[in-house]
Amino acid sequence: MHQTLSQNLWFHELRNHKGTLLIHILCWSLLFIGLVWIDQSARPLAFKMLVEAISILFYIVLVYFNVKYLIPKFLTEKTFLKYCLFLVGTIVIITPIKVLIVYTLFRHYPEVRPSIIKDQSWYFLTNFLVVGGSTLVKIITDWMAYQRDSKDLQTQTMQSELRFLKSQINPHFLFNTLNNLYALTLKKSDKAPDIVIKLSEMMRYMLYECNEKRVELRKEVHYLKNYLDLEELRKGKTVDINLKVAGEIANQQIAPLLFIPFLENSFKHGANNHISKGFVNIVLEVDSSHVRFFIENSKAEALPTQNHKRSGGIGLVNVRRRLDLLYPHKHELTITDTPNTYAITLDLEL
User: Which of 18, 41, 218, 286 is most buried, judged by most C-beta within 10 A?
Assistant: First the structure.
């Protein structure tokens, strides 16, 4: 199996090299045809083709020497001047050799030899332009590769971080709900079966439907309703819970489990601390491109010190981070903390 895998990798690498080689051959061939075509002199076609073929060979030597050796070794901020000197020096050395070879090949054509000597400066200029162009292409392609790799790395990092944040949110809610269920089973409450059904629906949603980057908003709302039903079953008449949904939620998509940390905090650090009756009011307004989520809960006059320190909890920290990752520059989170109420408003561009 290991041998087969190695063979497959070798074949894949070989195929990539062949593809790159074909592209290079095609580019040099097109350059050769272009150089012959733009030569409008009265010299014979065979002469033009031979001269340009020699030019292409020298271009190939210069370009690959530049790309494979000079650029990797010398093209940095500190050695840029040295790179320029080596580049110009290479062209200065190569150009006379090229002229000498062309001059020698046409020893039987004394009428064209003077034009070869006369075109030395043109040979130098074309060599410089071709090699300079290869430097520019190399810089651009390396920059594009760097940007692509950076984007891939950023995407992978974001996905890993989102998976980590979601893994923190799900158990956080599950532990709270199981604690509530355990308390009711100890009391042999008739509400326990209803909680099991609601919890089953919520776990199915979290485990099987929240693995995508976006979920249907109507499913997220149903999840919130189940959560509120569980809290209402557990708290009874000690908390007044109100949920209002305005707008069309059937065809909208949203990141999963964004709202549940706000609900958890509203009960855990607000309504649950009331000796008498408290409240949790939630309003969800939706239009074609925008969602506004508002939640407000009452606060006890004397909030226990431990809970006060934990106000917001890990859920709110995580949801802030998720919003930064999933909706950069497309959300606004506002927190209003008064002596008697705690409110959060989330404006989100879909």
Answer: 286
Sole residue written with tokens 């890993």: 160
User: Average pLDDT for residues 36-49, to the nearest whole number?
Assistant: 73
Residue 156 in any domain: the answer is: no
Domain CATH number, residue 194: 3.30.565.10
Q: Which pair of tokens denotes residue 215?
A: 């979920």
- pLDDT at residue 225 in the model: 92
Structural domain range at position 254: 190-349
Q: Are 134 and 210 within one domain?
A: no
How many Å apart are CA 150 and CA 144, to the nearest integer?
10
Please report which residue ranges of 188-341 form alpha helices under DSSP H.
192-204, 217-235, 260-268, 305-309, 313-326
Using a 10 angstrom Cβ sphere, with 0-12 exposed, 13-18 middle and 19 or more buried, the burial of residue 97 is exposed
Residues 123, 256, single domain; the answer is no
Kind of pairing between the strands at 331-337 and 341-349: antiparallel
Total domain count for the chain? 2
Q: Are residues 337 and 208 in the same domain?
A: yes
Residue pLDDT, tens place only, 270-299: 655 555 678 899 999 999 889 999 999 988
Rg of the chain over CA atoms, in angstroms? Answer: 36
Quote the CA–CA distance of 99 and 55 in Å, as a whole number: 10
The answer to whether residue 172 sits within a structural domain is no
For residue range 290-326, list pLDDT tens digits in order: 999 999 998 876 554 444 334 445 567 778 888 888 8
First-last CA distance in the chain: 48
Higher per-residue confidence, 144 vs 192: 144
pTM confidence score: 0.54
Residue 282 inside a domain? The answer is: yes
pLDDT at 252 over 70: yes
Tell me: do 217 and 123 sit in the same domain.
Answer: no
pLDDT at 2: 43
Q: Tell which of 118, 150, 182 closes a domain.
A: 150
